[in-house]
Amino acid sequence: MKPASISIRGLVRLARVASKYRLDRLTTLGLRLPLWLTLLLLPLRLKPPPNPSIGTDLKLALIELGPAFIKLGQLLSTRRDLLPDSVSDELASLQDQVPGIDSSLAVDTIKAGLGDYFESHFQTINPTPLAAASIAQVHEGTLIDGTQIVIKFRRPGIKALILKDLMLLESLAALLHKALPDAERLHLFPIVRDYRNVILAELDFVQEADNAIKLRALWLPRGKLSVPKVHTTFTRDNLIVMDRVHGIVISNRAQLVEANVNLERLANLGVEIFFTQVFIDNFFHADMHPGNILVDATDPENPTYIALDCAIIGALTRDDRNYLGRNLIAFFNENYRDIAEAHIDSGWVPDHIDVDAFEAVIKAVCAPLFGKTMSEIEFGKLLIALFSAARDFEMEIQPQLVLLQKTLLNIEGIGRHLYGELDLWATAAPFMQRWRAKKTSLPDLLAELQDLAPDLAQALPNLPRNLLLAPGRIDLITASQKRQSRKLTGIQRMLAEQGQRQNQQFGIILLCLAAIGLVINPSLGNDFTSGLSITSLIIGAVGLQQILKGIG
To answer: Which of 24, 81, 96, 287 is catalytic?
Structure first.
């Protein structure tokens, strides 16, 4: 993905909303900022916050910023080890309590989407929304034959808003790419690109219907996870009709306790479902925030799950699944050497890294967690330690695993809230051992050979000739590599010099933009907390940093 241009208008909008809701108060929750940014935010303390609760103001700010930021709030709501319960509870309402659109407009949108089918197949539509999320809204209804259904439709005009949000995120990525020394290693642009693809995919309800049908078919025989039946006749690009289902929202722990649900069994079942989706089916629900998970408590001793909203589905390549499985099995066996070697073998860590030192760091981070329950594991500190190790050992952040990482964070947050005494090792370790045993079994090896048979048949006739020519080709490749190495050294030197010049030029442009912003701001001298003033100061500071980087 080519680095995006920086939208000054978008950054001004972000600064204005942050100033309006006094989001500088997030620093009181343990969020650490650079010293220069902390100093620049000091004037905001002169301005009273709209609400006493930072959780309320953060939620309102995310709603005002748009759907992409609401999705961010949904993810944060599951991280109760990182945020106080008061903030998490506020953000949890973003799952399905976003302000709905006008009832008459909602009904008109549904009728327009259904066309002639509305009069011939639908008996009623409740104008009051059952749930309102950032992208879609859900209403109850009844078919002519009495079937209870829900109708989910895309909010009118939402695509334009999402594109605007994505432009702002790309601007932030571009700014961070210039300002952070670790920007290349973090793969900011591929991550933003993948996020763009994911959130735009949520707008396609035909694809969501297909995902729901496949997930339902996979799990219906297992009886552990159910997905509402989709009425494909009524599926449209912006509308989907499903059977109405009933259950207890997973985040409502008090109601689950009141219903005598076996929470330990429910938590262990969640782990089993996740690992099955990732390693067996390679088709996992990748938007598992609490608003999308219900519990069927008909049999409290043997509860099951109900999955809603199948817009985002994840899948991994064979290599990624094997890498992930190898790491998990090694972790469960406390084999930290194999974890270090897996990172090097996969190319995620350069092969010049000291494997002994890398193993020692992994052991220091992971060993204290072994055997502990969910309530005892501080995943926030674990992630900080792992990212620190990643920086020290040049580990590359893998964009293709972002969906899986997001899903893991969601599930971990839910598991901690649901049943903190969950013994993850007792559930996950046996599953992974069975998975490895099956992968190395004769039937699976024969199946893999069968998959490779066409390629093998094509390659075999040329094998003798290729073996005879191999030594000469290796010599040619070696000579070519030496020539390329010399050229690359020269190119790297030239690029480094060019990068320094670009940093200086970019810094000068940012300083000019900051100066223009301060000059044209009519409230300068009266209100130093305005969004334009704050943005101009931040842009100026980044510009100065770029100039110094170019000189250095």
So the answer is: 287
